[in-house]
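Before the break, one more example. Copy the sequence into your notebook; we will annotate it together after we see the structure.
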Amino acid sequence: MLQVIITTIIVIAAIYILYNNIKRKISGKCDCSSCSSHCNKNNK
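Here is what the structure looks like once it is written out:
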């Protein structure tokens, strides 16, 4: 039972991270893990 709970938490976290990255990419914001000067969105 514990394995199911841990797996569910990991899957939910992965979906949340992917959702946020896709949402940022669609809105035109930086979707890098760290938005620094190397990010293409910041080098306009």
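Residues 12 and 32 are 20 Å apart (CA to CA). The radius of gyration is 15 Å. Try to locate both features in your own notes.
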